């Protein structure tokens, strides 16, 4: 099974390929030669990413060629995608990585992850709906729920269940005297 860093690299290249190739496809809609060139570049990148093991370096070369093409032909185009800010790019890449990671897991594990994810959501919402919940406790619940979600993203089912139990413990604490304003 691929490591998380390799999955992250594949996801990052895939994300950037999807965004840029969609833009270029729009720009070359009426040009058969350009559409063929685009299709060849995308097919090459997809083949490199689908290889076993994936060849992220080769896929990145295809991506670089797309970037160069877009820079040459459509640098001033008002809808040319700009590189996402680091935080936004990471959020988008995280979504791609979750999908790639999820696809590598056996069905049994994916089913168990779904069960844990549903349990997390139900328990989180139940805790947040408790009347009179202290603001700090609510913040702690959000924090621990985020840790459980992150553990699920990484495929660590035991850690996710441990964080759900911890979230319930935090939610059962007595309210503190000071409230958040």
List the total number of helices.
7
Order of helices and strands: HHHHHHH
Structural category? mainly alpha
| Overall average residue pLDDT | 89
What profile does the largest beta sheet have?
Answer: none
Distance separating the two termini: 48 Å
Would you count the extended β strands for me?
0
Strand content range: under 5%
Explain this structure to me?
- The protein has 181 residues and is mainly α.
- It is 76% helix and 0% strand.
- Helix 1 packs parallel to helix 3 (56-74), helix 2 (32-50) packs antiparallel against helix 3 (56-74) and helix 5 packs antiparallel against helix 6 (135-153).
- It is elongated.
What is the element layout, followed by pairings?
Layout: H1 4-27, H2 32-50, H3 56-74, H4 86-104, H5 107-128, H6 135-153, H7 157-171
Helix pairs in contact: 1-2, 1-3, 1-4, 2-3, 5-6, 5-7, 6-7
């Amino acid at each position: 099974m691929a490591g998380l860093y390799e999955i992250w690299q594949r996801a990052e290249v895939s994300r950037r390929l999807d965004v840029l190739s969609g833009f270029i496809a729009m720009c070359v809609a009426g040009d058969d030669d350009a559409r063929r060139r685009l299709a060849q570049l995308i097919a090459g990148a997809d083949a490199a990413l689908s290889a076993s093991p994936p060849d992220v370096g080769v896929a990145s070369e295809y991506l670089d060629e797309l970037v160069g093409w877009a820079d040459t032909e459509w640098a001033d185009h008002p809808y040319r995608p700009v590189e996402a800010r680091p935080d936004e790019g990471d959020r988008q890449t995280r979504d791609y990585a979750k999908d790639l990671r999820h696809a590598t897991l056996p069905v049994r594990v994916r089913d168990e992850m779904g069960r844990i994810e549903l349990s997390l959501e139900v328990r989180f919402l139940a805790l947040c709906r408790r009347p009179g919940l202290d603001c700090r406790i609510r913040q702690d619940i959000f924090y621990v729920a985020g840790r459980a979600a992150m553990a699920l993203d990484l495929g660590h089912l035991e850690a996710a269940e441990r964080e759900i139990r911890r979230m319930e413990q935090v939610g059962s604490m007595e309210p503190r005297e000071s409230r958040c304003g």
